[in-house]
């Protein structure tokens, strides 16, 4: 590979560091006592501009700026919490006759992006900037590639910023180094999952793990990724959902289980879809979808408030302010279509639905059954208009092969989806526990597959066998973690809330 001039210089510096007897990639532990954020915060409360209550600190991080002034220098260190300035004097870090640690290493061989550790006391410069007066200096790691160095001119314009989306998503390690403000997205993601786990543990549900490699890709309507197991000599699939295995555990006698699962769907990629995504699913015995709506409201209200530091349940997304505080509006699917299109689908058969689709300019094809047609109408004319949290309830039976029939409404099932800011965030059922009915639903799915529906659900004989041993009334739900994080952080693209989203193959020659 042809290297740039700066890369060649850094490799030359690497060898010169070794010639000084210093290991540029040391293995020893370096004991950090404080983070940059802690030092800067403590210094804000100092009684005068020269001292704080921090007598000695040890920090480590990347060198992000450097200003040499002969026998002394200022530099900026960036750690996981932010940046702090350091002041380095030649005679402090190299008190003897040998001044190579400062004159050669610090002044000439230290590059931006290198990792160093320093120990010293905190003070404030004459301009009032918190700094560390360095007494000990340790080299901790060499950066062999130059980091992008955004610059702001006198007019406030930023030049050479690392802001190309493809580069940022592909090289997240560079993105989060030079654009550290994006780290807060992932901190909020972590806090969200921690809060949700805490709430579910409070309900005395048990966290479990289920297989990612499966012989049958059940639990959702989606195309799977297919692979092959050499030892077993059989095809296998990456799971598209963990629903059927979690319900097997309800059969086994667990009253409540949950899993933060990595699922995979071999479908299109866009601003709200990634082939690999994170889904929270939980199932609770002796409950129904009405109970689950109440629980979902309480879970999201608690989690969002926790992520926001316990202060508010609202988030700002573009021009919209979303409030996660319950109760949420509840609207049947038929009523939602009537409200936003004026069309009544309650008694419409497949032919009538195709006529409605034609009037509404909704695309259809021959593979679509009644449920798929209704889903297309809803997706085209209703979903995007639901901004505040809204439960869409009581779906047609054709759309929900794993859901219990509605107890009082013929042709419908006890299902809801939670729509927020025009996107589905959660999907929930009163779970179908009648094995005879379930087999008939799978058979209907097989007919759709024969018509060319490649998202239809396959027959799962082992799951049917489990149901035949008996499953209690159960409520289940799946919540899309990635989309929820998008809402809480105001992001319009799912790629912004994934550390490493799927990308096209990189052209390394280019």
UniProtKB/TrEMBL annotation:
<dbReference type="GO" id="GO:0004824">
    <property type="term" value="F:lysine-tRNA ligase activity"/>
</dbReference>
<feature type="binding site">
    <location>
        <position position="424"/>
    </location>
    <ligand>
        <name>Mg(2+) 1</name>
    </ligand>
</feature>
<dbReference type="InterPro" id="IPR006195">
    <property type="entry name" value="aa-tRNA-synth_II"/>
</dbReference>
<keyword id="KW-0648">Protein biosynthesis</keyword>
<dbReference type="Pfam" id="PF01336">
    <property type="entry name" value="tRNA_anti-codon"/>
</dbReference>
<dbReference type="Pfam" id="PF00152">
    <property type="entry name" value="tRNA-synt_2"/>
</dbReference>
<protein>
    <recommendedName>
        <fullName>Lysine--tRNA ligase</fullName>
        <ecNumber>6.1.1.6</ecNumber>
    </recommendedName>
</protein>
<comment type="similarity">
    <text>Belongs to the class-II aminoacyl-tRNA synthetase family.</text>
</comment>
<keyword id="KW-0963">Cytoplasm</keyword>
<keyword id="KW-0479">Metal-binding</keyword>
<dbReference type="InterPro" id="IPR012340">
    <property type="entry name" value="NA-bd_OB-fold"/>
</dbReference>
<keyword id="KW-0436">Ligase</keyword>
<dbReference type="InterPro" id="IPR018149">
    <property type="entry name" value="Lys-tRNA-synth_II_C"/>
</dbReference>
<feature type="binding site">
    <location>
        <position position="424"/>
    </location>
    <ligand>
        <name>Mg(2+) 2</name>
    </ligand>
</feature>
<feature type="binding site">
    <location>
        <position position="417"/>
    </location>
    <ligand>
        <name>Mg(2+) 1</name>
    </ligand>
</feature>
<keyword id="KW-0460">Magnesium</keyword>
<comment type="subunit">
    <text>Homodimer.</text>
</comment>
<dbReference type="InterPro" id="IPR044136">
    <property type="entry name" value="Lys-tRNA-ligase_II_N"/>
</dbReference>
<dbReference type="InterPro" id="IPR004365">
    <property type="entry name" value="NA-bd_OB_tRNA"/>
</dbReference>
<keyword id="KW-0030">Aminoacyl-tRNA synthetase</keyword>
<dbReference type="InterPro" id="IPR004364">
    <property type="entry name" value="Aa-tRNA-synt_II"/>
</dbReference>
<dbReference type="InterPro" id="IPR002313">
    <property type="entry name" value="Lys-tRNA-ligase_II"/>
</dbReference>
<feature type="domain" description="Aminoacyl-transfer RNA synthetases class-II family profile">
    <location>
        <begin position="186"/>
        <end position="501"/>
    </location>
</feature>
<dbReference type="InterPro" id="IPR045864">
    <property type="entry name" value="aa-tRNA-synth_II/BPL/LPL"/>
</dbReference>
<keyword id="KW-0547">Nucleotide-binding</keyword>
<keyword id="KW-0067">ATP-binding</keyword>
